[in-house]
Amino acid sequence: MLPPPVEQDAPTWVASMGAVPADEQVVEVTLQGKGNETVVLQALHVRVVRTGPPLPWTDYGTGVGCGGGVSLRAFAVDLDQGRPAARAADGQRPFPYKISERDPEVFRVTAHTGARDVSWYLEVEWSSGERKGMLRVDDQGRPFHTSASSGRPAWDYPPGSTEWIEHQEG
After folding, report:
1. How far, in Å, CA of 18 to CA of 111, rounded?
2. pLDDT digits (tens, 9 = 90+) for 47-95
3. What is the pTM of this model?
4. CB contact at 8 A, 44 and 120
């Protein structure tokens, strides 16, 4: 097997393989207002489009570097729930939040599944004065796609490695 690409080339490589995140998918979104008006972000909704049994594919894991020091709002989603919801992570407050052109917010949503193959997207409910709406957050016009990996063969390519190694539990 060929080694994985460098991190900046990974999205193109993953897309060309038709790959799907296994067990967990992290979505980061930066929201910022336009002009001087304050926008109130009322809620973050999870919308499931399709579910099914986990994909029967091999699981390939690669090591990635650490993130930067950007302050963000962390939320978790359990995609195995009948009605998944975005829950504020420990120490974070739930919605609402306010944003403006000078005061953006960065949200990191970590979605997990241990039992299903799930296609899903997020909706941000917002208001500003008399106006209100819903902003869809998806994967370039398509739902996000996350599949459980339990029972699948798994291979890792840890940082600094020169070859794929069979994943060892624990």
Report:
1. 19
2. 999 999 999 988 888 765 444 445 789 999 999 999 999 999 988 999 9
3. 0.86
4. no
Which is it for the CA torsion 8, 145, 59, 57, positive or negative? negative
Q: Which has the closest alpha carbon to 22: 152, 126, 132?
A: 152
Can you tell me the distance from the alpha carbon of 63 to that of 69, in angstroms, rounded to the nearest whole number?
Answer: 19
At which residue do the structure tokens 């291979």 appear? 155
The candidate with the shortest Cα–Cα distance to 158, out of 17, 19, 4, 22, is 4
Number of H helices, E strands in the chain: 1, 12
Task: Spell out the residues 6+ positions from residue 159 whose beta carbon is closer than 8 angstroms to its own.
Answer: 63, 64, 65
Dist. CA 63–CA 157, nearest whole Å: 6
Task: End-to-end CA distance of the chain: give it in Å, rounded.
Answer: 24
Q: What are 40's strand-pairing partners? A: 98, 127
- pLDDT tens, position by position, 121-133: 999 999 999 999 9
Domains and CATH numbers, the chain: 21-57+66-151 (2.60.40)
> Alpha helices of the chain — where are they, by DSSP H?
10-17
